[in-house]
Amino acid sequence: MELFSVTALLLIVCTVFYLITAARDKRQNKARLPPGPTPLPILGNLLQFSGKEVFQTFIKFAEKYGSVYTIYMGLERVVVLCGYDTVKSALIEHGDVFAGRGRMPIFIKMSSGGVISSNGERWKQLRRFSLMTLRNFGLGKRSIEERIQEEAQFLTEEFRKTNGQPVEPFFYLSRAVSNVICSVVFGHRFEYDDQRFLQMLHYLNEIPKCAASVWGQWYNVYPKVMEKIPGPHHRFFQAIERIEEFIREKIKMHQETLDPNFTRDFIDVFLLKMEQEKDTTSTEFHMDALVHTTIDLFAAGTETVSTTLQYGLLILLKHPEVEERIHQEINQVIGRNRSPCVEDRARMPYTDAVIHEIQRFIDLLPLGIPHKVTQDIEFNGYVIPKDTTIYPLLNSVLQDPKQYMRPHEFNPGHFLDDKGKFCRNDAFMPFSAGKRICLGEGLAQMELFIFFTTILQNFKCKPLMDPKDIDITPESSGLGNIPRPYKLCLIPR
What we know:
Layout: H1 2-31, H2 54-65, E1 68-73, E2 76-81, H3 84-93, E3 100-101, H4 105-111, H5 120-136, H6 142-160, H7 170-185, H8 195-212, H9 214-221, H10 223-226, H11 234-257, H12 266-276, H13 287-318, H14 320-333, H15 349-362, E4 371-372, E5 377-379, E6 382-384, E7 389-392, H16 394-398, H17 441-458, E8 459-462, E9 476-477, E10 481-482, E11 489-492
Helix pairs in contact: 6-7, 6-17, 7-13, 8-9, 8-11, 11-13, 13-15, 13-17
Cofactor: heme
Binding site for heme: 438
Subcellular location: Endoplasmic reticulum membrane; Microsome membrane
């Protein structure tokens, strides 16, 4: 009898959700939503996605339904944009309407109220303030370049200590890259053996792993349910808590030593802005915004560049002929007696092309970060209702066969013309595009060039296996592409 009751209840629940879905589909047709696969009650289209390579399912849907289509992640409606022309039209030509930040619980958990996950007036004010402050502390100026050059030398010394023995490069790279953003946000760098610093880097490393995992993907769809279910995704929650504790400690120390006449870093400037607006009831500058915007800068400023460097060195192990050409260009332009600088990039087209191709090929965030439309919009013959979540599929832009000759192969020639000069491509969008483009793009490009050239100025990368046996496909591909762990030998030149 009890089993019958439970079964009957389940049938009633499924029937109700079927009717809700049917009514929703009817409204969809009237609203002229883009086409898409038929969703199941509650689950939406989730069962149609591959857990390890989610974006591949998005590409298959595009082949069937076109460059603009609708899916359901659970009960949430999502419109997916595919290909350079479509993404460009949305993010650039209709930038104001597509500038909202879409719902992604894993980012909200990490950055609720920060510059990445916020919307409306809060996002506008925090983004404007963050860009202005970063520029004042040297983003785009020589001072930040000198910080990167200094950190690249510290990294070089650490690599020398390995004496050419096999080493996993990730945490070496992570410490160096993180120290650049730390010097801007916290006002100082950390020693490489600082245990608190190493702990924070460990926690930061948990974030992309969780986001790329099946557990992280399910959390994005059913956050309230997943928070109650045990599993490895709880390591992500613990990592966020520890990072937030660390940031709050740093802010408290800044409050105790704040000098209005001498601002040391981003936190100081934000605290002074909070003081200026303490009597403004509608201010967006308060402690919650400071904590989570600092987390945004610290996390994004560490993980994206260090992962790109890690993946880039793996690709060079696979393609030693590419590394050799970079060595030749370094010898011709920089030599061995001075540090590489940003000005060198204009005279090193091949190296510049390789760095761009690494970013294109690794496709670090294949799904992009979700947007949402801020009003109803007619787009590509369809009507997208206000507040609909938008996935601008960056993978489909960076591997668009109309824009790149061999999109699925690593080929620096994608960014070189017939004369060997660097050639820009408008479809190069690893940092997204439009009003929501990554605010740290300039800093990241500067870091990638200086760190790559400094490492290769001083070392030759030696693989531990035959290059043809090196696997450069991602270890996992969810929200982000995670490279496979590896070791290499750094042989002094």
